[in-house]
Records
---
Amino acid sequence: MTEMMKKLFTILLAAFLLVQVADAQIFSYGVKAGIGFSSLKFNDITGINDGSQVYDLVTGDAVMGYHLGVQTRVKLAMAYVQPEIYFNTGGGTVEQVITGGATAILDVKFSRLDVPVLVGVKLGPARFNLGPVGSFVLSETNDLQTLVPGYKVFSQSMTWGFQAGFGVDLLKKISLDARYEGSLSRLGETLTIGGAEFPLDARPRQWLISLGIWF
């Protein structure tokens, strides 16, 4: 091997190592999984008369779901951008409060694909982030159909929301995150019961707790 070829080989090897180090410092990817606690938030509806009974519909309790997917991160000094995509399940309950009778619990469940793009700052191992999230609804089941056949809470196949929260990176390979997610899209359809129309815009909100592993 000539001296010129040795120098060229050395330069190429150094450039390759520098690129690998830069990539490792700037871009990373991994997987994540966790649980969520979601509920439906809407203005309570009172005085519904279906001809046989009178009842109210009010916001019920939160339910637990899970999420699983992949995460990426692009570092920019102390700031970073973190796009993710994961499968998410959740829902909530609606209470049917019958006048002079018992309270019935109506379950609402959904599965969807969530795509958040978060912008954050990193202070040591701690992180704080905020950003939009697009959600693609995959399936929905709800007990409101016992009141109005065919009724859907998610009248749109895609919805928009936001996420905000904090996290901590441990051992450079493990991350823990806690976030709040709210909805920005108008959901639901008008309930028509007993000849009267009632607006029901039941927007999901949830807390997400995640464990991530980076490669």
---
Amino acid sequence: MNVQIKHTQAERALIDAGETAGRGPALDWLKERGLPTRRVEAWHYTDLRSRMPDFPPPADKPEAAKASLDRVPRLFDATRLPFINGHYASELTDPLPPCAMVADGVPPVDADELRHDDAIGAINAALAGGGLSLAIKENANIETPIGIVCVGDEPASAVTRHRVTIGAGARVTLVERHVSGDGVALHANMVTDLNVAEGAEANWVIVQEHGDQATHLAQLNITLAARAKLTIMLLNRGGSLVRQEISVDSTGPLSELKIRGVNLVGDESHVDVTTVLAHHARDTVSTEIFRNVVQGSGSGVFQGQINVAQLAQKTDAKMACNSLLLSDAAEFSAKPELEIFADDVQCGHGATVTDIDEDHLFYLRARGIGEKEARDLLVKAFVESIFEELENEAIADALNDRIEDWLDENG
């Protein structure tokens, strides 16, 4: 017997907004299940129902989009595709190279295929009001990064969906950046479907730096074809409630995936990174390394799952999660998982949680370095090496600069 749940204020707001948008299957998902609690395994460490007390209505199309974008300085040279409060500001888009094509509009989604625990996908399928499709032509070599810049400056919801296709043999770097100011109760929800075709090589960089009252729910769904290579660089350094999901299907042999992430969790913030890497073909490689720094009463989560199908022989898959807690009230939960059905693989995982080593701190202080500077140096050494693998030095330097700024603000 199905028991109808009593909806919270946030769930009622989501359902009302979904009825206005007229998205049937996704709306039914929200009505039947509501927001996930700790009883849903994938959300055990992030009780979304209690952490999301309300859901604001969508923002109107901004009248001063240029002013909003101008308040966000560029971190490095890139072709920008701007979204202001969830609306695509096509008039402010930088000129794209001829081998890249963009189409405005929300890509279609089959909401009937939503998983029972896919709250982010359900909200997005029900409410997405903005988005684009970006296609990189076969064998294109694009040197200047292409960036989707999402700016929020209103206490509203900004729900967007994107589709990115990278043609066979192409080379490109793509960036998504999320920015909002302190005191702005923005609710951002973004789902991106990324298809990397045979032999393509791509970097995908995520920089999330929302203000202290923002909620950020994001999902990156990836398909890797044969011999495709993808490197994901993720920096979380803001937001009140953050959940970033990364789901990868390695469908072709000899594909390679790298995920490198840094989570800087401030006082009273909650940051959750959940990854699912599925190997479906032989001779595929994946490595993921996360470094986390938590201070004050902040809390963080890493859930990493590696699935190796029976046909995926010779898979090499590894993940590591290392966390640094800078206060007694700081928390970080790590949940690595391996599900292996092949018998000729190399798979492993590891997780550590620690404080700053007192011997290392004493070593620096004994050489005349003040305590705060010494602690900052040790934290920087812990996290900044993560982005060294990026071939684009300008992006790597910009990410490390954002880390240093966070340490200065939260030291």
---
Amino acid sequence: MLKLPEIQKQHLIIFTRYPEPGKTKTRLIPALGSIGAANLQQQMTEHTTLQAKELQKAADISVEVRFAGGSLQLMEDWLGLDLFYQSQGEGDLGLRMERSLFDAFQNSAEHVIIIGTDCPELTSQLLATAFKQLQTAELVLGPALDGGYYLIGLRRLIPELFANIDWGTSQVLQQTVTIAEKLDVSHVYLPALADVDRPEDISIWEEFLQQEVALRENSDVEA
């Protein structure tokens, strides 16, 4: 068992990859180039961690970053020393998520949520809603428009939810829900959101950035 530092009852795990050109967002390289794809990975991860830190201002929630690629030193230099970092380790996505959940629950977490960094519309308010839903439901899912999910939250480890899933396909959400129903696991959904995985998704991020700029401009005007 991995001993985690100062884990709260509500624990948020962010899955991401160090933005090394050529090794991240590979499906976007034909459209953006290896450096452009890595820059996008960097920007989206920074946006997601910012939302996590905003959430921490309003609630007692610990945040852990599970990373692939890079190193502990590189992650700390990039995202700062105020987060806890741990390598994702070996295995497919299901095994890596199961491992992170096992560690969290073994370290006294009671409500654990895993998110990726591909969904720009995932806000601190939505994360707060997900934790609130875990008060009554055993499983919370954030459906992605491509058939996967951008968030999964649990009150206990249910290994079956991470086995025999066709990761990276449009079947992920439905396969997960089917398993939950067979196990009679109560589950609820967050709003369906778009994520940025393929060249045709790049406009989602661009539109998000434009909205952010407009919000800042309006805020400056009001101030």
